[in-house]
Design goal:
The complex is a heterodimer of chains A (about 200) and B (about 60). Chain A is built from four helices and 14 strands. With about 200 residues, chain A is mainly beta. The chains are: A mainly beta (about 200), B mainly alpha (about 60).
Chain lengths: ~200, ~60
Amino acid sequence: MKATVVDLKQSRQHPLLGQSDIRDLQSVIAQLIGEPFLFARLGYADELTLHFGTPRLAKHPRLRAKGVRYGSYLLGLCGSGWLIKSIPKDRLIIDDSQLELDPSLSNLDEQAVRSVFAEGELFRADTPVIAAKPFELKKAAGIALRLETADGSGIVILPAPAGHDDDELDHDSLPDWELKTPDGLLRVGSGLQWEWKSLPDEG
Amino acid sequence: MGQRKRDIREIRAIAAEFGIDPREFGDYIEECKSGGDRGTKNDRGDFTLSELRAKAAEYKETL
């Protein structure tokens, strides 16, 4: 039997060069497999975040009073595009802000989109992740992610093509997507690079 | 989508400046907006950079 062992206490930085690097990245993402889906939420600037694992209440009292929760595993899309297959909703939902789809395909207003992400309704609650596979998206020169849950739902994260996000700020300051775990932070992109940073215990 | 990424970068930079959790801070801002405490950046009630800094200080003080 062949096996890959990844020391998650060790920080690493990778330019993505080939299939072995994809496998290395996949082995880091694999810590999400088996974790139950909790909910998805659109946050500031409509950043979509998927929460998995064990829920905890927010630290700030104003948020705690509202019952705002976070998963122990956070998959943040950092403004990248996405495509979601929701079995409970019986819908394929596509973020068309990046994909520039035919407007006739998009029939959800902002309120309807937000209702799609109401807690527990996107994927079946507590359904575990069964697959999380990164792959190179050549058109965007970036790393996409396909994630599936046991209820048959799933999400594909699509990084923006190079040059799509043209501004004067530091492009390296925001990844295409990220996974925060109890052990560390995985930042993927921009471009074909990723890094894993182990985090100190929060106590 | 460029604007969305710029906005996310902006709030993360301010959260880093104040040493606070960027995601919770972003949710705090959204909670403020939904409670009627809105910024002056645009008609969506978003906050300008200086307003966000004031909000970050407020968040930190009340944490």
